[in-house]
Each structure stands twice: as structure tokens, then as C-alpha cells.
Amino acid sequence: MKLSEMACGIEGVVTGMSGLPTATRKKLMVMGVLPNTPISVVRVAPLGDPLQVRVRGVDIALRKQLAESICVEVK
Asked: Which of 32, 64, 67, 71 is most buried, judged by most C-beta within 10 A?
């Protein structure tokens, strides 16, 4: 499942980010978005972009296009 497809309040685990450019993947990893890390969608903007996600206790805003490249497994 893609991160952009998760509903608000659902928790999952990051399984991959292989569709992203190396520089973008590194920036996400610095912010705590790592494989096997719990992640949840806090809320979605009214028009669907951006998404507010919580990783390791920190809230991050991600564009929908970016969230479509992050694979997650729902718990």
C-alpha cells in the first residue's frame, strides 16, 4: 500500500522508498522516515495535498506525489 492511500489515524510501517531519487530519499531518512519505522497519517489537507504524517513522534508535511512513492504495510 502507498502512504498516500492510508486513512487518517491508521498506523503502518515503512517498507520501501525505491521510487524516489537518492537525494529525496536521503532527506526523508534524515527526518526519520526509514524502512521498518512506524508511520501514521495525522490529517490530509482539504484538497488532498499535502499530508501530515507522524514519524517517531515528529509531524512532517509531505506532498501527495512524494507520499505515493513511499510503500507502507498497515498493522
From this structure: 67
